[in-house]
């Protein structure tokens, strides 16, 4: 696939996506959003990829929306703007719903949409010195397209405090409020990624991916406590899989040897 604003490489079940607008700190604009939408559609069908890593070239993962793009949007009508911002919302939803385990490597400046991009991933690794803020209200805007993914991680209370004030916070604070899963010393994101991938590959990866899919359906309201037939079907299908049979057999053999 031909891309101008992103680079990607798939090796041994791991796809690494690098946002490639370092001169703009990888700020989101129409072209970058369109390319991410296109790549995510491809990954949704790619059964050979188990992990998707999102990172940024240069000093930042993603500094939010490109203000030049937003400035141009102020001269467009509401219908045109709605269409282009729907593409942003759909891109985040595609990322959130990918069948692979998704991991964001967050560093540098992460504002607004940059935080939303990370929040749509399953895991977020952040550097201690990362500078983060929901700066939309300072610009007369609302963090509308990212809000469902961000609030799903940090809750309403912290969302109010940070979104209504536009206050800056760092990687350590992001970890405290649930926006990040691991906070690492500057320059140690790669080491943190290696450890996380090792932990994720210890369980049966097929079970991990099915578990992610069910968690997302429960969170979205698609599956609830009354959907016992669906949840029972998920378990019955998995228990007859080759992967489950192998892991259960291996576990029982180890337990017998320990007696």
Give structural notes.
By secondary structure, this protein is an alpha/beta fold. 50% of the residues lie in helices and 15% in strands. It has ten helices and eight strands. The longest helix has 20 residues, at 78-97.
Please tag this protein with its features:
259 residues; alpha/beta; 6-stranded mixed sheet; two-stranded parallel ribbon; 10 helices; 15% strand
SSE layout and pairing:
Blueprint: E1 6-11, E2 14-19, H1 30-44, E3 51-56, H2 67-73, H3 78-97, E4 101-106, E5 109-111, H4 113-119, E6 123-127, E7 131-133, H5 147-163, H6 171-176, E8 182-184, H7 189-201, H8 205-220, H9 228-239, H10 242-258
Parallel strand pairs: 2-3, 3-4, 4-6, 5-7, 6-8
Antiparallel strand pairs: 1-2
Helix pairs in contact: 1-3
């Amino acid at each position: 696939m031909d891309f101008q604003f992103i680079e990607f490489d798939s090796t041994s079940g791991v796809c690494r996506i690098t946002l490639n607008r370092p001169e703009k700190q990888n700020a989101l604009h129409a072209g970058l959003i369109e390319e991410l939408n296109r790549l995510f559609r491809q990954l949704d069908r790619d059964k050979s990829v188990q992990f998707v890593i999102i990172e940024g070239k240069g000093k930042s993962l993603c500094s939010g929306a490109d203000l030049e793009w937003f400035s141009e949007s102020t001269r467009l009508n509401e219908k045109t703007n709605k269409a282009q911002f729907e593409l942003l919302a759909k891109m985040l939803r595609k990322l959130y719903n990918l069948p692979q385990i998704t991991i964001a490597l967050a560093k540098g400046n992460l504002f607004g949409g940059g935080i939303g991009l990370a929040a749509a991933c399953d895991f977020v690794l952040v550097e201690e010195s990362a500078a983060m803020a929901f700066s939309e209200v300072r610009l007369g805007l609302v963090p509308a397209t990212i809000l469902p993914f961000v609030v799903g991680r940090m809750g309403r209370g912290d969302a109010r405090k940070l979104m209504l004030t536009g206050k800056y916070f760092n990687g350590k604070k992001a970890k405290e409020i649930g926006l990040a899963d691991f906070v690492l010393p500057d320059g140690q994101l790669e080491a943190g990624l290696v450890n996380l991938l090792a932990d994720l590959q210890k369980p049966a990866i097929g079970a991990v991916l099915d578990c992610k899919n069910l968690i997302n359906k429960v969170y979205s309201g698609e599956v609830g406590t009354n959907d016992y037939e669906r949840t029972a079907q998920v378990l019955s299908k998995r228990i007859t899989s080759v992967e489950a049979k192998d892991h259960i057999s291996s576990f029982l053999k180890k337990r017998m040897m320990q007696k």
